[in-house]
Amino acid sequence: MSPRSTRRASLQLARFVPFRLNRLAVAVSQHLSAIYRGRFQLDIPEWRVMATVGQDPRCTAQHIAASTRMHKTRVSRAIAHLLKRGLIERVSRAADRREMQLRLSSSGRRMYAQLVPLALLRERALLACMSARELRGFITGLARLEGFLGVAGPAAARASASHAESLP
Amino acid sequence: MSPRSTRRASLQLARFVPFRLNRLAVAVSQHLSAIYRGRFQLDIPEWRVMATVGQDPRCTAQHIAASTRMHKTRVSRAIAHLLKRGLIERVSRAADRREMQLRLSSSGRRMYAQLVPLALLRERALLACMSARELRGFITGLARLEGFLGVAGPAAARASASHAESLP
DNA sequence: CACAAACGGTTGCGCACGCAACTGTCTGGA
DNA sequence: TCCAGACAGTTGCGTGCGCAACCGTTTGTG
Description:
The structure is a homodimer of 168-residue chains.
Chain A (H helix, E strand, L loop, with lengths): L2 H5 L9 H24 L3 H12 L5 H8 L3 H13 L3 E5 L7 E5 L1 H22 L4 H18 L4 H10 L5
Antiparallel strand pairs in A: 1-2
Helix pairs in contact in A: 2-6, 3-5, 4-5, 7-8
Chain A binds a DNA duplex (30 and 30 nucleotides) through helix 5.
């Protein structure tokens, strides 16, 4: 064993990246979910469904589960809530009657139109604690880890790089 | 409204940093908790308690809750499990009988000694998907966000900068 | 054509979580 | 001195979650 590897044989949780990542994600979630819950009575799964359906108008539960990496039961329950509130609508496809096509209702579209600018504003406010250069570095690392763990499709990986350019 | 701000008035969840952070944290947690659960039958709160008690031998539940930012009931239940399994011990302090001082038992120390190298190994394996330069950038951004959201004490902030140097 | 396997989506169940309320202990000011 | 409030830690309760099992539909293979 080299002196170098023994030097850091101890563990400090405050420096342990997986822990820090989890703690940070919880804090960011809480920071944002104040909007969803307080103003629109959406929890996080519901917000994700709204966001996904809003950007893809011929969306299925399956597709939402895959792109958000939420468990399909979580998606199913979020959809059930949104249906009950009349924020989304569902039609079964003639081609395959197992699938249900989802889209925003008119009231859902109204909420979506209010929700999206607020969410983007919060994201910008959050990331404004970094310089543009730091942000690029951070996003790059994020994308590397996503790629390593296989949590983002190739489309998302391509998108993420260009995204940094349009942020402060 | 400027053309620039209207250009990105739409939201793509796959590019939305808070969502990506959460998704990544979940993936990293699952990646790591395979060790804790499979090999040592620890869940994440229990692992965090072990890690905290192991690095600070005169630790209280209160201190664990503050430094990990876990809810005190979560900490309390994790401690109860570890006590039942004989991995930690507890003595009430004469100075203040509300507080209970925690420390690893001998079997807890044995587990800790096996656990820490594995955890550090996994961290290194995870972060090896980045170059040293990318890693520094990523850790810097992490620290900025932690500072902005107030999730890390000043000690942790100081530590995090120097940490990057000792990683690949 | 038939039937088994795969698939989209839902549901029953057990479990961990956070909130609020609680117990027991300490502290500070009237 | 006393008592109201703060604090460490625990517990009852409602809720959301993931797993596994399930239903109805489609697909593929003999």
